[in-house]
Amino acid sequence: MIEKVFLVITKDEEQTTAFNDLVLLIKTHYKLKVELKYYNDIIDADEQKSFVLVYLSDEKIKRFFKNHLNSSINIAILPTGKNSKTITSYGISNDVHEALEDALDTSRYAKVDILLCNGEPTFTNIIIGNVHGLNNASIEKKFLLTKIKEFFVHLTNLSFRDFTFTTAKDYKLHTASTGIMILEHSVKHARSNMIHEEFSFQDGKLNAFILSPTSILSYVYYLFSVFFYSRFSLNNLPKSIGVIKTSKLNITSSKPMDFTIDDSFVSSKTIDLEIIKEALHIALGRNIKNLPEKSTTEDEKDTIKTNDLPKGEMVGSLLSETVPLFKRADEDDFKDLFSSLRESSKFSSIFIVLMVLSTLLATTGLFQNSAPVIIGAMILAPLMGPIVSLAMGVVRAENQLITNSIKTLAYAVVTALFFSCIYTYSMPLSELTPEMRGRLNPNVLDLMVAIISGIAGAYANSKSEVAKSLAGVAIAVALIPPLSVTGIGIGWGNIDIIYGSFLLFITNLVGITLSASLTFLVLGYAPLRRAKKGLVYTSIILALVTIPLIISFTKLIKQNSILSRLNNKTYTIDNKKVDIAVLEVDLSSKIPLLYIKTRSNTLLSKKDLVSLKQNISEHINDEVTLNVSMRTIVE
């Protein structure tokens, strides 16, 4: 049974009308005895028969809390107009009458943790540096134009500084960051940040969010998420944010840190953060819907999610250099990949055996016109290793890697041409199959195959969890069949076959190398300034070989246009109905040559065919030459 209230005030408040009205309300309406105390007094009260009403500003409440850590008194907070941080943090109503009702509700009292920053209690958050909107929940309510404006303001304001973190379990992390946000607890009604998740009053842990975008692209993605998505939880944070959840955290830097505690500016070279477990017994306000039922047991394990934060050399580069456009790969990942690619670039007996077998199998499949056999040859082909190594050599300007890769690829090309040529020369067949013909007129679509294959190859090699054999097949698709067709052309002595298929091979080789190099660049395996020279040379070669591809693609578009306009078309010639089907469109000469098949009930004369030619020319707005196969239906 509550009999007495300790009302904690300052001497200045004692003379105000609001204070006198409050005392009168407590005495007359609630029939309770009131004893005045000042904020710096130490109160030792019977928690069963009394409680402490705190009627102070935020700063004075901090002093009062600090003096009563781990005491057993029941504390309730009343709104004064000067303690917005406190009442927001603990869900207190802004109405004094409602706050008094909650203070008298014994079910609302709970033991809560207190976060100390350099010995001072913290109610909302601690912000070190610039967290670029992570601490601003009001972004969600702003107009779109305002969001866009603030987005670009932040976009031009990115800077890093070094931090060293030491947790309660002696985990140490040295990294570079733009800013850090630290919370003790967080509730939905009072969320002042972009983390849509509640953190307990009683888990014995603080929550540190470390912002460190390691590239311009990752920074843009983070800003876009903050300003236009605005919903984060611990499970879907952008990779630019690391999380440390611990009971104690020491933060140091090479220079004094300017930071805010509950929006009050402070500066220090060292920041000591500590959670005092179940430090105070406080009445939580009605704005907190889910009251803690009982004290929770502190989880002894710390939560550390910092794998994507910069470490090692990357820290120094972020502090002293311009932030890169693309993220740089971790040193350990790079060392493993680079070592693997050095081995892949070297010529070996295993490589030559697989090259011979895949070439012979592909050539056989081409003569058979069998796609499954050609696919089998692609699986055998060992070309991914030297090509991806060449791409890495280009992007990192590694001359030795480039030299080894080119030598191995040269051996592969000579081997494939030699064995496919000898195989063709000994084969008593001389007809082009559709599978061969499909490799003779390369166009921009073939280049797209090469580009996608190169991306797949580079990505598969950079990610250990991706099966490299799958990407190897994609690369072999673009290289082994055209190279085998070139060997067939040599065996037959056909220049047109050699030119068309080898152009496709060179196009694919250059396209794969360039796209794989760009993929490695995006994945962070080389700075852009180092990759410029190799990428420029590769791009020039690609541009040169793309010219005939564009010409060929233009012809393909024209072929498709003619086919779509004429196929299954019916003409009336001299009162005779003639159905036509276009078998092939040959655009090798100035006037298109159309191979068509006609179907009619009456035999067509030469005059009819001339009229048909004129009708077709008018229909497609171009002169044509017809090669006609006639079919007459007799009923």
Topology:
Elements: E1 4-9, H1 17-29, E2 33-38, E3 50-54, H2 58-67, E4 74-77, H3 84-89, H4 96-103, E5 109-117, E6 120-122, E7 126-129, H5 144-155, E8 161-167, E9 172-177, E10 179-183, E11 206-211, H6 216-229, E12 241-246, E13 248-261, E14 264-283, E15 303-305, H7 313-320, H8 331-344, H9 349-368, H10 371-380, H11 384-396, H12 399-425, H13 434-437, H14 444-462, H15 468-492, H16 495-522, H17 528-566, E16 569-573, E17 576-586, E18 593-600, H18 606-620, E19 625-632
Parallel strand pairs: 1-2, 1-3, 3-4, 4-14, 18-19
Antiparallel strand pairs: 5-6, 5-14, 7-10, 7-13, 8-9, 8-13, 10-11, 11-12, 12-15, 13-14, 16-17, 17-18
Helix pairs in contact: 5-6, 8-11, 9-10, 9-12, 9-15, 10-15, 11-12, 11-16, 11-17, 12-15, 14-15, 14-16, 15-16, 16-17
Verbal overview:
The protein has 635 residues and is an alpha+beta fold. 45% of the residues lie in helices and 21% in strands. The chain is built from 18 helices and 19 strands. It has a 15-stranded mixed β-sheet that branches. Helix 5 runs antiparallel to helix 6, helix 9 packs across helix 15 and helix 14 crosses helix 16.
In terms of structural class, how would the helical and strand content be classed? Answer: alpha+beta
Kindly report the CATH topology of the largest domain. Answer: Glycerol uptake facilitator protein
Number of strands: 19
The major sheet is characterized as: 15 strands, mixed
Q: What is the CATH class name of the largest domain? A: Mainly Alpha
Number of domains: 4
The outline comes out as elongated
Number of helical stretches of at least 4 residues: 18
Which range best describes the helical content: under 10%, 10-25%, 25-40%, 40-55%, 55-70% or over 70%?
A: 40-55%
Strand content: 15-25%
Q: Kindly state the mean pLDDT as a whole number? A: 84
Quaternary structure annotation:
single chain
* CATH architecture group name of the largest domain: Up-down Bundle
Protein name: TIGR00341 family protein
Organism: Sulfurimonas hongkongensis
InterPro entries: ATP-NAD_kinase_N, DUF389, NAD/diacylglycerol_kinase_sf
Pfam families: DUF389 (PF04087)
